[in-house]
Amino acid sequence: MAVLAGRVHLYEGYGPEEVVFPARVLALAGIRSFVATCAAGGIARLAKPGSLMVFSDHLNFQGANPLAGLRDPRWGERFLDMGRAYDPSLRLYAVNAARTLGLKCLEGVYAAVLGPSYETPAEIRALRTLGADAVGMSMVPEVIAVHQMDVRTLAVAIITNRAAGLGRRLLSHGEVLATSQIASQDLARLISEVLPLLAGEA
User: Fold this and answer.
1) Quick one: pLDDT at residue 136?
2) Which long-range contacts (CB under 8 A, 24 or more apart) does 188-192 make?
3) What span, in angstroms and rounded, lies between the C-alpha atoms of 183 and 174?
4) Taking phi first (over 0 means left), then psi (-120 to 50 degrees means alpha), and beta for anything else, what does residue 159 get?
5) How far, CA to CA in Å, does 74 sit from each of 63, 128, 150, 154, 157?
């Protein structure tokens, strides 16, 4: 098992190829399953701070795609079907594990935006109309890259706040970090429950 601690983001000025470089290295090293985590703002009614969300699909509004530009044939096909980017079996493992552990967890669609500013209430209303259940600024480039390399993906988010316009207070990065810190224990329990299942498959 390999673990990546932290990531770089498009909003920090890195290019898509730099953002996905660590994930591509893992895929080239032979991993068969990729478990991604992130923090996200809740859009769906039940996506409340401190809960978890397993992603079933995504909307990429980051304005970048790691498959564009120069291509290494080792990465796989350039024109990629993203219909099963989030592996149904792994999602089922996570949802069942959350139920076993008594964790608040739902499935939903993740909207990835560039950031680093939080979204406006109007943008959240638009994203909700388009089917988004949560919103954040990371993870989608890596998911696209490893899916291209035929690696199964599970993505789980900590819902750290209600998205702009859906809560009673202005968004605070400090509050997001505090909620992440508290809920990270639940996320760790969930991942610890899922990993033996992945090892069993191997």
Assistant:
1) 97
2) 189/101, 189/103, 190/52, 190/94, 190/97, 190/98, 190/101, 190/103, 190/105, 190/156, 191/35, 191/37, 191/156
3) 14
4) beta
5) 24, 37, 11, 22, 29
* Peptide linkage before 196 cis (omega within 30 of 0): no
Question: In 3D, which of 136, 127, 75, 131 has the Cα closest to residue 108?
Answer: 131
**Domain count of the chain?**
1
How wide is the angle at C-alpha 113 spanned by C-alphas 33 and 182, nearest 5°? Answer: 65
Question: Does pLDDT of 4 surpass 80?
Answer: no
pLDDT-derived band at 173 (thresholds 50, 70, 90) equals confident
| 156-184 average pLDDT score | 90
Domain range holding 164?
33-201
Q: 6 pLDDT band (50/70/90 cuts)?
A: confident
Count CA within 13 A, CB hemisphere, residue 158.
22
The token pair that represents 19 in the structure block:
């953002």
Distance between CA atoms of 32 and 4, rounded to whole angstroms? 15
The domain spanning residue 135 has which CATH number? 3.40.50.1580
Q: 134-136 and 33-42: which strand pairing?
A: antiparallel
Q: Region 45-56: what's the mean pLDDT? A: 97
How does residue 157 score in pLDDT terms, banded at 50, 70 and 90?
Answer: very high
List the structure tokens of 138: 């990371």
Inform me whether the pLDDT recorded for 170 exceeds 90: no
Position 23 in a domain: no
